[in-house]
Amino acid sequence: MNYIHALISRKLNFYGNTNPVELTGKYGSPLYVYNESVIRSKCSELKGLTDYPDFVVNYSPKANSNVEILKIVKDEGLLVDAVSSGEIFTDLMAGYSPEDIFYVCNNVTAEELSYAIDARVKISVDSISQLELFGKLNPGGEVSIRINPGVGTGHHKKVVTGGQSTKFGIDIKLIEDVKRILNRYNLTLSGLNQHIGSLFMDSGAYLKSAEIILDIARQFNNLKFIDFGGGFGIPYNKQNNESRLDLKTLGEKLTQIINNWIKEYGRQVTFIIEPGRYIVAESAVLLGSVTAIKLNYNIKYIGTDIGFNVLPRPMIYDSHHDIEIYRESDVQSAKSESVWIVGNMCETGDIIAKDRTLPEIFENDIIGILDSGAYAYSMSSNYNNRLRPAEVLIDINGNDRLIRKKETFEDLVDNFT
Ligand SMILES: Cc1ncc(COP(=O)(O)O)c(C=O)c1O
To answer: Same domain, yes or no, for 213 and 360?
Structure first.
């Protein structure tokens, strides 16, 4: 096998004892390939964010909820979030105890909230009306509330979840209303949480929001935990040497903020972060095959089987993913050229990379879409009645293992009555 353009995966020995051509031959194309060592090292990095002794990392499985991946994350000692009853279910399947699951919901039905209450997981609500619903369903219970600190961050306006233009969290001006509902239903406020957006590379807004939530927390005497949220970014543009998030400085500043606050609060409180992307994004490469090449009005299109049903981020957020090229034959690419890499879906927006300069690509080449571990499979769909691909893990010894089967046509029709 010939690595045409693959510096990043080669440096990591990402494919261990196997290679992309062998893997797609064995499991089909497209194919999500995960690397266990990468997941474990990302867990360690975030566990070491602060030396504050009572610090917990809750993994956010909306980024990737494959149960085998959850088991690895659990084995690394991370606790877990859930944003739906389905995520509570898969967290439990991965072996998490209810008390280790933090359900952070938004606009849910009484039925869904009851499922979480009955499952005995920790619950956070994010509006006065949902706090009231919780009170009615579970008077005398323990609850956390999600604050909107008035500050947001994120790689795209669709994922900024704090500030003036988002549906999330409780406006800090409404804290007196929160207290009234807590009293009315005899609820104990055990925690405060927030999540101000996804993918920050500059920690300014995150640190500012930490100060704001701690300011609110002063008003409540018996808090058990404060959760600052996730959003830790990863460099998607490694081929252009994009810098990493400076976790060391972020950790030092956060520790200082926490220690100053704790001195004043006078009681031990657990501090939590809830990252999704940072743990899994870099752990996967989405492999696909080059199926057709054409020139259409001066644009060279590289047609692949990687539609936006398996990688929605470029379509939804105009996100960049680095691309690698692998080839079975020994033929070399003599030149580089600008191409558009596109998928097989029946929509013009089905574009993975626009005007990307890459070594010449040929039919039957395998391309690897880097950093596809977060918000890829978890956001995938059956649009156009396409099947979701298999997921494979390169384990700690470099060997491949199937962790989710490829869908079948029967999966498309199973629920018809
Ligand atoms: C409530 C909540 N927590 C955590 C996360 C994880 O975010 P990220 O994957 O950016 O770390 C999200 C994602 O949007 C979220 O909505």
So the answer is: no
Q: Are residues 76 and 50 in the same domain?
A: yes
**Same domain (yes/no): 268, 298:** no
Report residue 382's pLDDT band, with 50, 70 and 90 as the boundaries: very high
- pTM over 0.90, yes/no: yes
Atom 16 of ligand 1, residue of closest alpha carbon? 195
Read off the pLDDT of each residue in 259-264 and give the average, rounded to a whole number.
96
CA of residue 62 to ligand 1 center, whole Å: 7
Question: What is the number of domains present in the chain?
Answer: 2
Render the burial of 370-404: b for 16+ CB within 10 Å, e for the rest: bbbbbbbbbbbeeeeebbbbbbbbbbeeeebeebb
Domain hosting 344: range is: 2-34+282-413
Q: Which of ligand 1's atoms lies nearest the C-alpha of 374?
A: 9
Ligand 1, atom nearest to 83 Cα: 1
374 to each of 131, 205, 255, 385, how far by Cα in Å?
30, 22, 27, 23
